[in-house]
Structures are given as C-alpha cells and as structure tokens.
Amino acid sequence: MRLGSVLSEAMRNIGAGTARAFLMFLAVLLTGGLMGGYEALTVVALEGEAATRIRADADVRGMVGGPVDGLACDRLVEADGGPTASGALRAGPQITPAATPGRSLSSYEVTPGMLALIVAGEGRSAPAADPTGVWVPATLADDFGLSVGSRLDTDQGPSTVAGVFEWPNDGRDTRFAYAVLVPVAADGRVFEECWAKQWPPSEETDGLLYSTAVVADRTGQGGVGAAPINKGFDSHYDATGAYRTRMTRWMPLLGLLVGLLLGALSVRRRRLEYAGALHSGQSKGAQLCGIAAETALWAGLGTLASCGLLVALCMRLAASDPWTVLAAAVRTPLALASGAVLAALLAGLAIRESQLFRYFKNR
C-alpha cells in the first residue's frame, strides 16, 4: 500500500471511532498533565524554599573577630566562583536624633559592598554609595517619618537619607533592624566584620572570608571565625541535594510505563481486526505504519495539550525561572507519548495472521 493510502485509512479509523482516539487522547492529557503538574509543583516548592532563604539572607556568611580589610572584602565578588555580594562593617558612634533627645540609635559604618549585599536580598540592584547620606531600615524610617531624600538631624550633625532598606525579624542578625548605616570608602580602612552572600552555598566562601583578615594567622583560630548571618535556618540545607533526591524524580519513568500500557492496550483491543487485515492481504509494514500514525496522533495531541497546561502552570507559579521548572515537568508527558508509540508498534509487531482463529475464538 502507498503511504497516502495508509494514512488515509488511519484517519478514517480515527474519524469513525474505531481507534477510540478521543478516549486515548483524554487518557494521555489527564495522565501527562497530572503527573507533570505534580512534578512542577514539587520543583516550585523547592524553588520557593530556596527563595525564602535567599530573601532572609540565610545564604550570607560573616567573618567575625576581625579586623578585616574593607577593600579586600568588597572585592571578594571578583573571585572566580566567589560571592555575588560582599561588604564590611564596623560599629560607629551612638547617634541621638534631634526629634528624640533621650533616645540614641546605634550606627554602623559600612562599605559600598555591604549596601549592595543588603539590597540584594530584596531583589534590588546594587546602589551607589552616597558618602553624604545615610541608610536606615524601614521600621526606623516609619517611626521617624523618613524617606529617601529626607533630612535627619542628630547630635552628630544633619544627614540626608540616601536609602531605606528592609530588615525583617526573620532570624537574621538584628543589629541593622534599628540602626543608621553610614556609607564609607573601603580603601585603606580596617573593619570589624566581612559578610559574603553566595547562592548556592559554597565551601570556598569561608576561605575567601578568612583571606580578608588583617592578621598573620588566617586559619580561623584565635577568635576569628565564619558563621551564618541568619541562624534561624538549617545550616546544612542543600538545595541541589534536595532537588536531586526529590520523590518526583522518577516521574518520567512512571510516565513511560503508563505510556507503554496505553499503547499496548490500544493495539491489543483491536488485534482481531489487525490479524484479519493481514489475512486480507495487508502487508505488515503498512499495518505498522497505520498503527504508528494513529497512536502518534492521539498521543501527540494529548501530550501537546498537557504541555500547554504545564506552561500555564509554570508561568503562573514559578517564582524566578519558569522555563527550568517547565523543562523538568514536560519530561513526563513526553516520556508517556514515546512509550505509547513504542508499545503500540511492539504490540502490532507481535500480531500474526496465523493467530486469527485464536483471536476470533477468544473475542
């Protein structure tokens, strides 16, 4: 038979309902969509957990017990595989606002890199450090009615608010929660601490932090040590390990098995028809071509529809990288469709004209 005749017959089988194509399409759509959706939701949950840690600065480590070189600390971001933000700080004088003479505020002198680290957790770009202005947390700004550009009169003289940042009480170091940050140049200055933000966490971060210490012994002894800035989260958290060991990592294999089952059933229920066609003179190659065309149509359309639903789901729920989540989710419906076509061909290959009487007898 010519290819056009084979495909025409396959389309007639689908149109007449012989192939039960619509039922198989629904099976592929629902199975692939549900299984792929479960995988997507699992990955989105892992992504959300990681995003929560990043927003809470759980990926920030600080070297305390200094002193540290402020310029070296700010330049840690230039190291290969180094942190995405790093900066130094040291305690400043107590500041008494003119509006509250009996209430003093702590102040900290910070490098430009520290300001970049602070706003990095908020998803903002690194600010330019304004040496003529100060940075205040949102809670302090609310209490004193401050905003960017506001004037803050203190016993140390007037200052301009150059920036307002968020510093919630989520387990992180509380010193910045109600303090004034004064940007200073990092060059040629010694600071008390160096912080570095890196995701995913790396064992090399502590080594880089120790390299900023202005001491002869940089091995982390003598009171110098690195610790997480936010101790409210598990320090042994492994985002990569959690993704690799997730329960749904086997979902594509399960989808393949379901596809094999659907493909085999679609042919098995019509084996009498196929054996009769062989007895009537249809070649085995033409028959397999027709089986492949019918199966590819309902499996392909079902997979396409389920992938469309997964695209919408990932775009709606994924926080940062929906395409990566989608790449993990669509593996299951794709494996299902591949298994259906493969099983249908193998089942069709096993049908023989000599089995016609047995199929008729057992129908």
TrEMBL record:
The keyword Membrane applies. It comes from the Bacteria. The chain crosses the membrane at residues 21-38, 250-267, 288-313, 333-351. Keywords: Membrane, Transmembrane, Transmembrane helix. This is ABC transporter ATP-binding protein.
